[in-house]
Structures are given as structure tokens and as C-alpha cells.
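Module 6 notes. Inverse folding takes a fixed backbone as the condition and produces residue identities as the prediction. Think of it as a translation problem where the source language is geometry and the target language is the twenty amino acids. Below is one complete input and output pair. Work through it position by position during the lab.
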């Protein structure tokens, strides 16, 4: 038997987390995609120069970065990383909410069978591995 109270509490908690993340995702700051890498001639680590790598269409694209831009560029790269993390967290929340709703749905779902008394037969939910849950 399902504990409706715990599911309701968890759904409410997920809804609050979702609201916070939605506000963050709907108001994105300025962002730059990619990551800073340091390039230097082989054997000469003292003379390294910064570069920016990003993937576009499955290919890695590199750009040189001016030393003067290193003071304002990293926060924009971090903002992009945090924005992507927020979207992934939002997707995980949505997945869990759907799973909880699915559990509730199966608790109240029946198959109609005219040959049995009462005519309703509870639906048995199968797990991912084919076993009953």
C-alpha cells in the first residue's frame, strides 16, 4: 500500500525546488560557453597562453583568449556551467515527479473483466526488469 502522505509531501518539496530553479533558469545572466585551457610549446611551461574550447555540432572549436580578458571571462563561463547544472537538476526533478505520479496512477488503475465478481481487477505494475513492483 502506498503512503499518500509521504508522496504528497515529496511532491510538494519537489514543486518548491522546481519553482526556485525555474526562476533561475528563466532569468539567465550573460554567459559564455566553453572552458579555459592553457596552451604552451612542448617543454616550455613558462610561456603558456590561454584558450577557450567549446563543442559546436559535435566538433571541438578552440579560440585564443587575450590575457586582458581573463579577469571578466571566467565568471561568464561559470555562469554557463551553473545554468546547465540548473537545467539538469530541473530535468531530474521532473523525472521524479512523473515517477511519483505514475505510482499514484497505478494504485488507482483497474482492468475491466466481465467474468469476475466485481468486474474490476487491479493492474499489476511491472518494473524495469520485468518484475512486479
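Target side of the pair, the amino acids:
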Amino acid at each position: 500500500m502506498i503512503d499518500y502522505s509521504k508522496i504528497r509531501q515529496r511532491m510538494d518539496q519537489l514543486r518548491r525546488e522546481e519553482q526556485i530553479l525555474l526562476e533561475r533558469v528563466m532569468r539567465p545572466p550573460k554567459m559564455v560557453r566553453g572552458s579555459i585551457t592553457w596552451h604552451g610549446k612542448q617543454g616550455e611551461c613558462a610561456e603558456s597562453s590561454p584558450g577557450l574550447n567549446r563543442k559546436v555540432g559535435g566538433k571541438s572549436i578552440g579560440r585564443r583568449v587575450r590575457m586582458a580578458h581573463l579577469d571578466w571571462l571566467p565568471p561568464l563561463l561559470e555562469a554557463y556551467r551553473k545554468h546547465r547544472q540548473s537545467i539538469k537538476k530541473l530535468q531530474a526533478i521532473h523525472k521524479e515527479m512523473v515517477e511519483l505520479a505514475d505510482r499514484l496512477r497505478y494504485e488507482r488503475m483497474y482492468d475491466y473483466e466481465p467474468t469476475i465478481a466485481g468486474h474490476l481487477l487491479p493492474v499489476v505494475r511491472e518494473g524495469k526488469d520485468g518484475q512486479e513492483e
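Reference fact for the lab report: Helices lie at 4-26, 73-107.
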